[in-house]
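Example 356.
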Amino acid sequence: MTEPTGNREIHTIRWENNTAILIDQTLLPATYREIPIRTVEEMWEAIRALRVRGAPAIGIATAYGVCLGLQGQTYTDSRAVIERVNEVADYLATCRPTAVNLFWALDRMRRTAQAHASLSPTDLCARLLEEAHAILREDNETCRAIGRFGGELIQDGMTVLTHCNAGGLATACYGTALAPLFSAHKFGKRFQVYADETRPLLQGARLTTWELKQHGIPVTLICDNMAAHCMKIGRIQLVIVGADRIASNGDTANKIGTYGVALAAQAHKIPFYIAAPRSTIDRSIPSGNEIPIEERDPREVVSFGGISIAPDGIRVYNPAFDVTPAELIAGIITEVGILRPPYKESIQWAFSRDPA
Ligand code: MRU
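Predicted structure in complex with MRU:
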């Protein structure tokens, strides 16, 4: 498939002929390439290597990963299918630890298998594929609702800062933190965006600017260490970022560097918002202290584009996420509305709306 241009939307993951097709995000923006993923092992690798990334997209990818893991085997009865679902889900659960959408999607696939144990093995596998399609479809609707609620925050003349990539590429199609921007743009609001480059893997520079350009939204790229300065000189009026896991009290894990952006925003009295679906909220944990933080390969920090940028053998610490305390967050934009502090109560309210 050719690269989307103009206002054409991205389809991060699709299913075709028993194969998941992903945009290989490690190659963007230089190369737009879709890659076929035919086995659960290939899906595990694609998620670990960030070919597909962003919390909701990882959830969708793992759901399809379960379906891939079911293929190529014969099952005597539905019990054997359920056993295989559990085996494949346990395996996929090891690929990345922080984004809770991955575990949410795997639980949903496990529960679907259990709930349809009376089906024949063939029908049960078909039902599980239908569930993966439903997760993708619902993500698209959810992101559009986030866009509608969050779009209200954007006023003519504003500049909005975002960090990492929480756009279409991080979801099925429409994004979380970028959804309010797409929605406001559609309604003719005139604003611009500053995108943090997001070291070490440059999701902001490579992916967010690429997506905003596709949509015709004016975007300026800055290095991560320029954000506080831009706030100080009055260039930023609003911050919207995505999330990988939100605890019951509103503490939020997102891409490393988000916490620093939130602190700078507080110092300059700039509202800092999280945009995320309810599937990113982990009600099983009371606070951000319980969120596991992924540590990644030191080579991501000491080399760039295959070129070494630090002395050989240097010690490296490479956490992929940090946790922003709830008190720095002005609101959490979800598909059921903008949640406000105190988050313990507003999160409960969000889940009382209808089943998530
Ligand atoms: O390591 P990544 O690229 O998967 O990290 C992505 C982020 O931190 C996003 O902001 C988050 O997953 C939200 S995506 C809608």
